[in-house]
User: What shape does this take?
Amino acid sequence: MRKFKTESKKLLDLMINSIYTNKEIFLRELISNASDAVDKLYFKSLTDTDVKLSKDDLRILISTDEEARTLTVSDTGIGMSDEELEKNLSTIAHSGSLDFKQENADEQGGDVDIIGQFGVGFYSAFMVASKIDVITKPYGSDQAWKWSSTGVEGYTIEPSEKESHGTDVILTLKPDSDEEEYSRFLQKSEIEQLVKKYSNYVRYPIQMEEQLQRALPKPEDAGDDYVTQYEDYTETQTLNSMIPIWKRAKKDVTDEEYNDFYKLTFHDFEDPAKVISLKAEGTLSYQALLFIPSRQPFDFWSKDYKKGLALYSSGVMIMEKCEDLVPDCFNFVRGVVDSQDLSLNISRETLQQDRQLRAMERRIEKKIKSELADMRDKEREDYEKFFENFGRTLKFGIYSSYGQQAELLSDLLLFYSAKQQKMVTLDEYLDGCGDQQKSIYYAAGDSRDLLSKMPIVKTVLSKGYDVLLCTEDVDEFCLSTLRQYKEKDFKNVASGDLDLETEEEKKLAQDVTEQNTELFEAMQQALGDAVTKVAVSTRLTDEPVCLTAAGPVSLEMEKILSEGPGNEGVKSERVLEINPNHQIFKTLQTAQSLGDTEKVSKYSKLLYDQALLIEGMDIDDPVEFAKSVCELMK
Ligand code: ADP
Assistant: This one.
């Protein structure tokens, strides 16, 4: 018995107990090794004319023996000599694949599709096996070898017999325990499922053979007393689909195939809204197949929802959801990314891996953006549907990145235009406005219907300017994060300084203010802290009053913030604007001149409450309001 080196033993314990808690992945690891071994032989056949291979030689066979409790993974690959067994299987974290890659990289201009990524892969089999035998025969040699170990102390290597080149890895499964039913790995259905899950796109067939019996045809001269004869036969079933759909040229794949793949893989019952395929070549080559769902996943807004793309390395699934591959603002995108260049060794090169993932993320982000922009321009109806589902995520993307994603996302936004009565992009808004318009006007509130009835909205519209009606809570936060679009700033029509008045109107307002200082003071006093100011309005035509906000916090923002915890102190600077041309203003003027302070006070409160109601906000004392209205009606 040769002993494992101390550090190998330590690593073995460590790995079995901690790194891979997911025991079933041992099969993926063994299949990957087998596939690499077949790759190596295939590669050799390309450069060495003495190596003659037929396509049928290149396969991986899985077999089980229930009685002996063994699971065997066999390959027809390059095999190992006794020295290689010693070097490759007896030193943890020694990667033969890497050595091989290095040796051949120069020759092949670096284009060798074998990755030494599972430095500890083989040993993961000890998670399920109490003993492992590896019987292997190197290609071109007559001598086979057997490596055996129980994973504890050490291993033995001895000469053995094997018909043809390749390797059989024979696992004797651990006895079933309360925690784990190891015998499930003897069942064909379980193996099939694991192959489909992790190794579906390994490029060689992964097969299982089944011994079956069938009836022989009845001979023509058989008499009446003929008893049916049976023969044994072997049925070979290939468990994996081999060529990943993302590796096939887009023109060779039907829409139906993409849709089926999407629905099956990502558990959706509706076809995707958009299929995006991406092929990157260069220092880092990869394929990506991405999908934009046509509806929100049911848990999309819950904390259980996780963004991410499935990450494959040469057809082997490494991670079911790799978060680093998509930015938050595109968290609705599902899909797979497959790279043959990605080094995913858990113990090494983590930094480099980060860099590679980031490079991929950037490219993927760009691609999603351009596809969405294309959809916006060419398939507007679909885009609007998409925006209904995920527009909020884009707006959040701008807000939560403090505007860093503005360039990426702002031209993808849609808002409802009060003038055009449809969804428009910001560019479309700007198309409709003249050069003299300095701002992009919007109104924020609960519903389009209410907003379009708002006095201020009507006034801005009547001046010939379009107003975007924003009804989602994130809208105003998004717009105030953006601050500008193509050098035009965003302005809430209910904000203090709309600056839409003519000089004449300004002058008039100033005069009215000066002539009525006492009235305004009295009104201000009646309203107390509720407003910071009572002012003459230049933006009202028919209505007596409206409420605006002077500072950076709008009334709508205050409303939204007050719903969240900890934001109670965030208040807008409310201004009650009064229409000097309205009859009610005259009534107030009269009351003030007659010294009827009670009337001024009561009417001020009533007008303020009215303004609140128009804004869709709560009034402080509804009972008092109702009482005052009744009194007036008497
Ligand atoms: P890795 O696959 O990351 O190199 P493993 O511990 O899984 O790490 O395997 C160690 C080495 O053992 C491999 O690099 C390979 O050289 C060799 N090996 C493992 N399985 C096989 C096999 N089925 N056929 C040939 N060589 C193998």
